[in-house]
Design brief:
This protein has 339 residues and is an alpha/beta fold. The chain is built from eleven helices and eleven strands.
Amino acid sequence: MIRRGVSKARTIAAALAASACLTAPALAQGWEPTKPVTLIIPAGTGGGADQMARFIQGLVQKHNLMKQPLIVINKSGGAGAEGFLEMKASANDPHKIAITLSNLFTTPLGTGSPFGWKDMKPVAMLALDQFVLWVNTEAPQKTAKDYVEAVKAGADRQFKMGGTGSKQEDQILTAAVEQQTGGKKFTYVPYAGGGQVAVQLVGKHVDSTVNNPIEAVAQWRAGQLRPLCIFDAKRSTYTAKVTEKEAWSDIPTCKESGLPVEYQMLRGIFTTKNATPAQVNFYVDLMKKVMATPEWHEFMEKGAFNQTFMSGPDYEKWVANADTQHADLMKNAGFLATQ
């Protein structure tokens, strides 16, 4: 199984490298940045988006993938609205790109902030990020079913769920889990970023989290946190051991664990709304070069990402569908600003 995973990674890397080479001659005659490019992170430090953005920055610099520097800036205010509103205000500046997560959809829906994904130009989907139900290793629950039963048996709002932001993907997932707890609610505790969420669970300030794999892998490896299930239709394909005994593929899906809930999150790149096709293509080509590096595939395995790449009309169609899906999820949870 490990060999098959490595073979798949090499195949993807070869295809991306070939694609990047094929487009390079044309792009060499087209547009390229004439000043430093700003990569905006609409989230706090330490979380999944922050880690991915800074990893991309390092790869661009290490492999000299762009003549101009790539500058990374966190703008997390207003559940990421600060970063998205800057992108909207910079519609005519192609020297800005943003890495996105589900707050691309949830923040305008939940807060009424005056922006939407159409205020930017889609560049590429880099991956789909997973969510895992985590508890402290000293917690008595060994499975997702155990945890759901404990919540059912406890007092309403007795159990604390830590997450990133309010009315964002973590709280949406929490609301979905609550549909399986016999009417019992969690006390949802929002934090600025996924890194802080993991630390709070280690310190037992909350009872559980739905952190992304990369946000809690260090604490899992250290024996401080226990993964109960992964919110995907299938188990992870990564079979290399993360701890002494377990790999990502050893974590059961939530459905097979008695918790029928699924959810994945976009890790994608956008640029400013009025970017030309040549400017968009430059960034598509840049991301393909990043994704063709061996370090990228190590990063994907470490974070147990679903390696799905899209650009062009396919990516735009996916984003439009995801926007509709999030509107439905948030309506059912009562999280829409208009509710």
